[in-house]
Amino acid sequence: MSLVVELENVTKEYGSGVAVSRSLADVSLRVEEGEFVSIMGPSGCGKSTLLNLVAGLELPSSGRVLVGGDDLARMSDRELSDLRLRYLGFIFQSFNLLPRLTVEQNVSWRLGLIGVTGRLARDRTAALLEGVGVPPTAWTRHPSELSGGEQQRVAAARALATEPKLLLADEPTGNLDSQSGRMILDLLRSMNEKRNMSVVMVTHDTYAGTYGHRTVRLKDGRIVRQAGEMAPSVERSEEGQVVPFRRRSD
Amino acid sequence: MNRLLLAWSQIRPQLGQLLIAVATIALGVALAAAILLANASLVRSFEESIDVLAGRAELQVTALAGGPLEEGLVERVRTVAGVGEAAALLLGTAYLEGREQVSVRVIGVDMLDESAVRLYQAGAQVAAMEDPLIFLNRPDSVLFTRALASQRGLEVGDTLGVELPIGREVWTLRGIIDDDAVSRAFGGRLVVMDLFSAQSALGVPGAATQIDVKVLPDHDVTEVGSRLRESLPEHVAVELLADRRAQLAGSLTAFQLVIDLIGAMALLLAVLVTANRLSTVYQERLWEMGVMRALGISRFKLVRDLLAEAFLVSLLAVGIGLPLGFLFAQILVAPVADTMSLNFKEAIATTWVAPRPLPLLVAGLAGVLSALLAALSPAVQAVRRSVVSVLAKGRRRDPQPDSPAKRYVRLGLPILALAVWLLRPFLPQGALAAVAMFLIAAAGALLLTPILRGVAGPIGWLFGISAQIGVEDQSRTPSRALGAAAVLMAGVAIPIWMVGVTESFQEYVVDAVMKIRRGDLVVESQFELGATGAGRPSVSGEVVDIIARTPGVDAVGAAVIAKSMSPKMGILALDPVRLRRAEFGDWALEPGALPGALERVAAGEAILVDTNLQATYDLEVGGPFRVLTPSGAAELLVAGVIRTVPIIPSGDVILSREVYRRLWRDETITRAFVLVGAGHAIHDVRGRIADRLGDRYRLDVKSVDDLSEWFSAAVWAAFSFVRVLVLLTLVVVLVGCGDALAANVLERTRELGSMRALGMSRRQIRVMVLAQALAIGLAGSGLAILVGLAMAVAFTEGFTPAVLGWELEFRPSLGIAFLGAALGTLSCVLGALVPAERAARLSPAVALRYE
Ligand SMILES: Nc1ncnc2c1ncn2[C@@H]1O[C@H](COP(=O)(O)OP(=O)(O)O)[C@@H](O)[C@H]1O
Ligand SMILES: [Mg+2]
Questions:
Q1: Which of A228, B494, B548, B647 sits 20 to 30 Å CA-CA off B58?
Q2: What pLDDT was estimated at residue B452?
Q3: Which residues contact A106 (CB under 8 A, 6 or more apart)?
Q4: Residues β-bridged to residue A6
């Protein structure tokens, strides 16, 4: 088994001088291929910061973040964008669908970015939306006309469109009722199981936390406890081969 | 007051953001104030110059053909019953020598005639005058206006060289006319002489160019006019000055309307830019307003408060705009004066525009109204959103489906505009043109949305997927894009319209005038005689023979330019060779001319009329035209119609000089065109002709190309203010588009963040925003071409006949239209560079947290 994400002594600070505030302090974390990791903790403890660092949306103040074996600090904006496009998928608490595009377009624009257009893009989009359980009648509507649960499923389809190796989800159930929330969680789990896709999910809902193989607890920017069933090969993966990002993309 | 204080505390922190709104409104106000001020002062000086020349007269006697008439007629005029005062006046031109030659109007008044003194004294307060006897006894005596004297740095007793029709002379300044009205009229370039001295200086002994008449108190002016007409010889015309003033006032109003329209357009542009800006500012306060609503403040009160803020903004803008406008007016007045001079064939010059209260008040009010108008729609929109959705969603805007009413309007208005457009020939012109222009502009604005959508496909196809996403996205809630596109459309349509009209004017005038005036050289007097563009003094017909005998001359074609009062028309009398040889001009007649029309005119059997004369007197080709000539009434056969710029607005007849000589008993010519023979250098022949004519005739020999260039340059200069306005509008477009796109980026911060998180690169975000700008640019500019050209056509058809007095053919200059559109699009994309960069540089993590 191989490593998808590796954080080495990562610290993230905002501001400078006396106004400096530390969001993450000396965090180390590894995520294996095929692993489902839940990150839990109270509001403001640095969960979103951690996800943003993994996605290369921000750079750490110190320490290294490796995704697919590559140090994100050494990558250009273009390479980072490509990583986010092909290797990662991102799901947000507030869905962040583009309100002016239709449901279909919200999924297919990412396909367009990887060069899948026309009929092929339409078919793939249809398959994706069906896969996450969005009924065809909703495909030509706009996000504001959908329920929260449906919107999050569209967001999931959008994240899955480019068949990422790693799915990042920042409180995906935070804005949903418990039933819709469960459907999303089931969806994430089935993706994880069927496609061997790694998932890093941030949540502060204890129920949601149980969906992962492993739960990482954060408090005040530090990992306080890791618990739960380890992925089968975590011990052996010290020098684990990574699932390389670049080889796929080139 | 309390409310204003509250409003002030609201906008103070947002003042930086309101800077663009303040600046554009201030600019609009400045432009409007400048236009109104310049206009008011020009109209004053224009009216004054009429009054100065006519004094207190009510009737005016002039030569039917224009030019001089016998001074002695004054005595006959005085014998007519009802005539109170009558005085002869001689008008001409002279050139003052100096570092640059300055042309001045020479006015000859009979200083010994009590009647003249009573008629004109109002206009001429002579201040510093040396001994009046010396003034009268010396033929070199002149009076200058105070303005002219100080401009030339002259004092009473000084002498100066002057070019006159009789040759170079030296004048002595014997007095100064210290009268404001006189100084303003003709920009003060006015010289008064005794009638006798003026006659000899201008080379027309015993002549006057007008006899002004004041009727006795209890007599009817019209009746006295008819009596005069009966008792005077055939070759003079009698005119009611009230008629002339009314006619001029009419054309002035129309001209002012045109300029005012430009000012209104500038304000409209300011309204659009400001509306965009305010909507952004309100957008940022949506949440705050939601809370206020939740706490029980009504929508009405919120709108009222927002309008109070807009009022403050407008006060600020007006405070800056009015002084600026006062400065603008000083710059604007010269080109506008040139344009007016060209239109009314009367020299108008004003150097200093006084700050009049009324124009300033009007411009200020217009500014306040503009700001309120600009605030209204965004304010209503801001408070219309439900409290719940505002509090839940913050400032995001979700697409809202069009209401059916909006859809009908969107469909109906363009159709209505088209209908009015097609009905043009059947409806009254001026008012209709205004309605049509308004409808066209409104329809254009409504067509923006579909067009914005239409360009999405091609742009996506051309610039890739990220461009397509951006444009698609934008076409869904196009409010911002529409704001920008509307600014662009207005900003580009205005230049296309204005430049289109002026280009047409220039091309048409230069073309139409020069088309029938070709050749290698032209010979004419350098002096003018008579009032209001009466033309150049005639030159003895012998000149034609002298030129014809000059070696190297292949052919000479002379022309007489004259005017006739009954019927009112201009006369262009030509040597037959001018009609027979193509090198002298292109006589393309309108369809339906009699066979061999040109030859029949050349042979003296028929005449041509221009389109304006045909319209004025409803003439038919093949039919007769009755004219009154010094040799009695004559019936002339109309052989054909030609489109040209007439000598006077009612139109011209074109006939053979033989016929003119016979009927009008006039042997002189106005101008002669020369063809140089093969193998001779034009320059040499020009020198030879000048030598032969020598000092005796005081004539100018110049190449026809020079004449044509001079003419183009004059027209070009006359419209320079249009180009200044065009430049200003393009700057406003740049700022307006950039501003709208910046607001767009701000509004979509979170979306941009999520797009970055999902794999869009900086470059792609940049491309996306620029593609949005390009879409706005293309949609706005594309419509601007249509709207601008349509407005130009509506304008030339509806307004120019009223302004110019004759019909102007609109020549759509597509080159200019596309250039304008390209510049507009470019401005829009340039304006988008900063917002695009800002969007690309956004930290995705920060953007995702943005609420
Ligand atoms: N751009 C930023 N500037 C300053 N502080 C920030 C910024 N982003 C996050 N923080 C701070 O970092 C801490 C962790 O934030 P976050 O990762 O969003 O927490 P969580 O997602 O666990 O609720 C918070 O205290 C937050 O205020
Ligand atoms: Mg968070």
A1: B647
A2: 79
A3: A97, A98, A143, A154, A155, A158
A4: A30, A66
Which pLDDT value is given to residue B805? 59
Backbone angles phi, psi at A137, to 5 degrees: -60, -25
**Is residue B346 pLDDT above 60, yes or no?**
no
Q: Does B277 touch chain A (CB under 8 A)?
A: no
Flag if B754 and A92 touch (Cβ within 8 Å): yes
**CB atoms near residue B529 (< 10 Å):** 24
Q: Which residue, among B783, B763, B781, has the nearest Cα to B773 in the 3D structure?
A: B781
For chain B, first and last CA: distance in Å? Answer: 35
B264-290: average pLDDT: 80
Say if the Cβ atoms of B759 and A98 lie within 8 Å: no
Q: Do B843 and A90 touch (CB under 8 A)?
A: no
- B268 is written with which tokens? 């409209």
Q: Which of B808, B780, B798 is nearest to B436 (CA)?
A: B798
| Model pLDDT, residue B172 | 92
For residue A52, give how far its alpha carbon lies from the nearest alpha carbon of chain B (Å). 6
Note the pLDDT of residue B631. 84
Average pLDDT over all residues of chain A: 87
CB B344 within 8 A of CB B186: no
DSSP B340: H
Q: pLDDT-based confidence at B802, cuts 50/70/90?
A: low
pLDDT at residue B703 greater than cutoff 90: no
DSSP assignment string, B58-105? SEEEEETTSS-EETTHHHHHHHSTTEEEEEEEEEEEEEE-SSS-EEEE
Six token digits for residue B655: 């006939």
B737-785: per-residue pLDDT in tens? 788 788 888 878 888 899 999 999 999 999 998 998 888 888 888 888 8
How distant, in Å, are the alpha carbons of B47, B255, B471, B833 from that of B340? 12, 8, 47, 42
pLDDT in tens, B648-696: 778 899 999 999 999 988 788 888 999 999 889 988 999 999 888 876 7
Structure tokens at B477: 């809630």
Instruction: Verify cis geometry, omega within 30 degrees of 0, for the bond prior to B567.
Output: yes
Q: Nearest 5 degrees, angle CA B580-CA B583-CA B586?
A: 75
Question: What distance, in Å, lies between the first and last C-alpha atoms of chain A?
Answer: 22
**DSSP classification of residue B529:** B
**B848–A81 CB contact, under 8 Å:** no
For A59, B493, B767, B796, the CA distances from B821, given in Å and listed in that order, are 44, 8, 21, 21
Q: Which atom of ligand 1 is the closest one to the Cα of A218?
A: 22
User: Between residues B158 and B448, which one has the greater pLDDT?
Assistant: B158
Instruction: Out of A78, A92, A109, name the one closest to residue B761 (CB).
Output: A78
Chain A within 8 Å of B844 (Cβ-Cβ)?
yes
Question: How buried is B93 (Cβ within 10 angstroms: 0-12 exposed, 13-18 middle, 19+ buried)?
Answer: buried
Distance CA(B761)–CA(B738), nearest Å, equals: 22
Average pLDDT for A59-71: 93
Please list, in sequence order, all residues whose beta carbon lies within 8 angstroms of the beta carbon of residue B481, skipping any fewer than 6 positions away.
B452, B474, B475, B740, B744, B772, B775, B776
Q: What is the pLDDT of residues B221-259, one digit of tens each?
A: 899 999 998 888 877 888 888 877 776 666 666 667 667
Q: Is A45 touching ligand 1 by the criterion CB < 6 Å?
A: yes
Cβ-contact B230, B144 below 8 angstroms: no
Contact criterion met (CB below 8 Å) for B191 and B143: yes
Answering whether pTM is above 0.80, one says no
Burial of B556 (0-12, 13-18, 19+ CB in 10 A): buried
Helix B762-798 / helix A77-86 crossing angle, nearest 10 deg: 100
Q: Does B401 touch chain A (CB under 8 A)?
A: no
Reported confidence tier of residue A53, pLDDT bands at 50, 70, 90: very high
Q: Is residue A52 lining ligand 1, measured as CB closer than 6 Å?
A: no
